[in-house]
Amino acid sequence: MTDKQKRAKRMEAEARANANIALAKYWGKADIALNLPAVPSLSLTLKGLETITRVRFEEGRAGDAITLDGRAATAKEAARVTKLLDQVRAKARLPFGAVVVTENRFPTAAGLASSASGFAALAAAAHHAAGLGDKPKVISAIARQASASAARSVYGGFVKLPAGKPGQATLSARQTFAEDHWDVRIVVAETVRGPKKVGSTEGMERSRRTSPFYASWVEAAPALCRRIERAVKARDLDALGPAMEQSTWAFHACAMASDPGIVYPAPATLRAIDAVKTMREDGLSVWATMDAGPHVKALCAAKDARRVAARLSRVEGVTKTRTCRPGPGVRVKA
Ligand code: DP6
Q1: Which residues are 299's β-sheet partners?
Q2: How confident is the model at residue 5 (pLDDT cuts 50, 70, 90)?
Q3: 65-68 and 98-104: which strand pairing?
Q4: Span from the CA of 2 to the centroid of ligand 1 (angstroms)
Q5: Which backbone phi and psi does 324 adopt, to 5 degrees?
Q6: What is the pLDDT of residue 96?
Q7: Which atom of ligand 1 is nearest to the CA of 199?
Q8: What average pLDDT does this structure show over 66-92?
Q9: Strand, helix or coil at 148?
Q10: What is the 218 CA–ligand 1 centroid distance (Å)?
Q11: Which tens digit of pLDDT belongs to each residue from 239-251?
């Protein structure tokens, strides 16, 4: 191997990261430029909803070449990736462009393809490829600047991202409990698509500017997050469920009251939520949440997951269900 080939080999890494579901929701920014959340959030990393990203910095290369799921990235997607790579290049004093290849191993159209696993994998792969080593806190802070939920996917299990204070460039997430802390399940019910969704970044900014409920949401969120953290610690589903549902509804109420309103639930979303409530009335401890989209995620004990999935798959408009267990954080192969 020539010296040049050896150097090129060192400037390459592959990372895998999983998606996560927020049990306590993030919605709103304290600092737009640094992408700092206005509220604390707490999530569960989900096994099997994985993004694999390979980054190779090439000596002498000017721009970045970015492939997402086998196609060239759009200009908007590429700009977000390059912005993250620029942070890494600045830290490593690396003046080279990169070849980035990313693949989502989400089951076909799981409706969950989130920026969280993507930017967590990208941040980790780029950090390693640039020779900056394995520093999860730093990687989480880099991922956060691209997408705040991605800061959480750097870690496995139950993960907290505190609210940021303007200017706090180093804010990162941290693991509160490892993935073996509690054997819960998230049953994802994919619903028929509603109208074209408003992306989270745009949606939360519209809420901050126009929603009369925004201030109340930001005020209420920390106590909800604390309740959720306590319930996770105690492995108490009957305490976690209601707090998670309230966090969900409070963020959606804030989004809906924006101008123009941001309405993520589709008719099938409401039917699935109703099915979750009916199962509860029948004695199951099962609780619903949704993010910036129409799909429903039901939280339950491992032993009840099969029943929950079977019931949700019978809901009119639910096209598919998938059951996820707690998963690991980012893994890197140099
Ligand atoms: C509703 O992390 O996608 O899923 O930081 O602007 O990229 P940006 O937003 P993003 O927002 C996720 C919002 C949410 C709730 C959550 O995951 O906490």
Answers
A1: 186, 287
A2: low
A3: parallel
A4: 44
A5: -120, 140
A6: 96
A7: 3
A8: 96
A9: helix
A10: 15
A11: 999 999 999 999 9
Short-list 316, 314, 312, CA closest to 298: 312
Taking the centre of ligand 1 as the mean of its atom positions, its distance from the CA of residue 55, in whole angstroms, is 24
The tokens describing 136, both together, are: 């999860």
Q: What is the DSSP string of 91-145?
A: HHT----EEEEEEE---TT-S---HHHHHHHHHHHHHHHTT----HHHHHHHHHH
| Mean pLDDT, residues 83-97 taken together | 97
Say what the pLDDT of residue 334 is. Answer: 73
Bridge-based pairing of strands 296-301 and 41-57 is: unpaired
**Residue linked to tokens 């267990």:** 325
The protein residue whose alpha carbon is closest to atom 7 in ligand 1 is: 147
Q: Check: pTM over 0.85? Answer yes or no.
A: yes
Residue 94, helix vs strand vs coil: coil
Mean pLDDT of 204-233: 98
Element (H, E) at 30: strand 29-31
Q: For residue 17, give both structure tokens.
A: 């990261």
Atom 8 of ligand 1, nearest CA residue? 147
Stretch 184-194: mean pLDDT: 89
Give ligand 1 pocket residues (Cβ under 6 A): 22, 25-27, 35, 41, 115, 147-149, 200-201, 291-292
Pairing of strands 318-324, 331-333: unpaired
Indicate whether 108 pLDDT > 70.
no
